[in-house]
Amino acid sequence: MGLKFKYLLAGLFIIMTAFLLNSCRKYEEGPFFSLRTANERLLGVYNISNCSKDGENLTNALNNEFGYTRLSIYEYDYNTRYTFLRIDYNSLYNKDLVFGNYNFDDRDIIKFRQSYDYNYDSTADYNKVLEAFVAGKVNAVIKKLTMKELIFEFEYNHKILRFECQKDMSDAEY
C-alpha cells in the first residue's frame, strides 16, 4: 500500500470515529451507543411502569384498578408536544390530564411547558403526581433513553420525582 493511501485511511478512520462519538450520547443509565438520534428515541407512547418521589413509590396513583396513565411525546404541525393521558378500564373515555409543549434542544434535558386550556382536578390521585407539570415548568434530566425505555428525573418542592417509562412498541413505526 502506498503512503498516501495509509494517510487517507487514517484520516477517514478519525473522521468516522469523531462522527460516531458525536452522534451518540451517554446518559447516566445508558445507552452508551445508539445509531438513532435522541429525538427519534424520545418520540412515542409510553406506559409509566414506575413513578417515585424521593424513593416513595407513587405508581399506584397513576396505574390502579380503575385505569392507567400514559405519556405521549410527539411532533404535531412542526411543534413538539407531550400529553399525559388517563385511560379508564370501565369506559371508553380517555382524558388528557396535562399537556403542552416540550423542548429537547439540550440532549440531556426535556423542558416540559404546560398548556393552560384544560380542566384540572386537584383531588384525583394522579394529579398528586402530575402537579409539577400543572405548575408550568419542568426541566427533567434524562437518565436513560433507548428505543424502548425512557427514565427521567426532576426536582419539585425539594423532592426528586422519577418516572420510568416503557415504550408501547405496538404503536412504534420502527
Describe how the helices and strands are arranged.
Elements (H helix, E strand, L loop, with lengths): L2 H21 L14 H5 L1 E10 L2 E2 L1 H4 L4 E10 L2 E10 L5 E10 L5 E6 L10 H10 L2 E9 L3 E8 L2 E9 L7
Q: How is this structure best described in words?
A:
By secondary structure, this protein is of the alpha+beta class. The protein has a single domain, classed as Beta Barrel (Lipocalin), CATH 2.40.128.280. The protein has helices spanning 3-23, 38-42, 59-62, 125-134; strands at residues 44-53, 56-57, 67-76, 79-88, 94-103, 109-114, 137-145, 149-156, 159-167. Strands 1-3-4-5-6-7-8-9 form an 8-stranded antiparallel beta barrel. A hairpin with a 2-residue loop joins strand 8 (149-156) and strand 9.
Structure at a glance:
The chain has helices spanning 3-23, 38-42, 59-62, 125-134, and strands spanning 44-53, 56-57, 67-76, 79-88, 94-103, 109-114, 137-145, 149-156, 159-167. The protein is an alpha+beta fold and 174 residues long.
